[in-house]
Amino acid sequence: MEKDWVKVYASNIAYESEIVRGMLVENGIDAVIIPARTLPS
Fold first, then answer.
1. Residue-wise pLDDT tens digits, 3-36
2. How far apart are CA 3 and CA 13, in angstroms?
3. What pTM was computed for the model?
4. For residues 17 and 11, is the Cβ–Cβ distance under 8 A?
């Protein structure tokens, strides 16, 4: 994760992550989804 980023949600179900991201964006909070396979171990 980038500096100053905060993980606010984690899920193995893609559509749930998209719903949460959409809700954050609608409320003026920048949000991104990072697939687990791209995170460092």
1. 788 999 999 898 999 999 999 999 999 999 988 7
2. 25
3. 0.74
4. yes
